[in-house]
């Protein structure tokens, strides 16, 4: 299983990117928001999962581990394959998806193309209890992952390690239930004022 990739982005398409790792270019299917965070020629770090089919090997990439875990969980539901699971994560952020499943919100789930009322009901029945088992965005483990990703991104942008770490810590102290992208935006805004 290929659980992560770190390498230089060779190209970014509408539904995939090519990341070169050790001289090998890996085509990685991803959501539009994940693809938008990648820049050609820059280093990327993606949480990944390899889907093996009789006629193909497809690598799916995510901006964080939580999205990858939800992607795998969605596919445990009958009728949800990797493409529909990826479409679900493209339409609904992990936190929004988790809340919709926990609250039984059919309206939110049917916003995803390919998921009708019956599909949404099946998702809720099968995943309502399981989404609570995944680490929540505000848990210490998830906070550590968010902190690590944001500090790494700031270091990649050339900020000194000490100021990157202290800024991220202060942003997380204000509100520990933020997504990686929200913490990064706030940290960049804070560092831009200094």
From TrEMBL:
Region (Domain III): 147-194
Domain-related comment: Has three domains with a flexible linker between the domains II and III and assumes an 'L' shape. Domain III is highly mobile and contacts RuvB.
Chief location category: cytoplasm
Any single GO CC term annotated in Swiss-Prot or TrEMBL for this entry: cytoplasm
Subunit structure comment from the entry: Homotetramer. Forms an RuvA(8)-RuvB(12)-Holliday junction (HJ) complex. HJ DNA is sandwiched between 2 RuvA tetramers; dsDNA enters through RuvA and exits via RuvB. An RuvB hexamer assembles on each DNA strand where it exits the tetramer. Each RuvB hexamer is contacted by two RuvA subunits (via domain III) on 2 adjacent RuvB subunits; this complex drives branch migration. In the full resolvosome a probable DNA-RuvA(4)-RuvB(12)-RuvC(2) complex forms which resolves the HJ.
Swiss-Prot/TrEMBL keywords: Cytoplasm, DNA damage, DNA recombination, DNA repair, DNA-binding
Family annotation (Pfam families): HHH_5, RuvA_C, RuvA_N
Annotated function: The RuvA-RuvB-RuvC complex processes Holliday junction (HJ) DNA during genetic recombination and DNA repair, while the RuvA-RuvB complex plays an important role in the rescue of blocked DNA replication forks via replication fork reversal (RFR). RuvA specifically binds to HJ cruciform DNA, conferring on it an open structure. The RuvB hexamer acts as an ATP-dependent pump, pulling dsDNA into and through the RuvAB complex. HJ branch migration allows RuvC to scan DNA until it finds its consensus sequence, where it cleaves and resolves the cruciform DNA.
Entry protein name: Holliday junction branch migration complex subunit RuvA
Species whose genome carries this gene: Lentzea tibetensis
Keyword Metal-binding: no
Name of the gene: ruvA
SUPFAM superfamilies documented for this protein: DNA helicase RuvA subunit, C-terminal domain (SSF46929), Nucleic acid-binding proteins (SSF50249), RuvA domain 2-like (SSF47781)
Single GO molecular function: four-way junction helicase activity
Gene Ontology process terms (BP): DNA recombination; DNA repair
SMART domains linked to this entry: HhH1 (SM00278)
InterPro entries (alphabetical): DNA_helicase_Holl-junc_RuvA_I, Hlx-hairpin-Hlx_DNA-bd_motif, NA-bd_OB-fold, RuvA, RuvA_2-like, RuvA_C, RuvA_C_sf
Subcellular location: Cytoplasm
Domain Helix-hairpin-helix DNA-binding motif class: from-to ranges: 72-91, 107-126
Family of this protein: Belongs to the RuvA family.
Residues that span the membrane, as ranges: none
Family annotation (HAMAP family): DNA_HJ_migration_RuvA
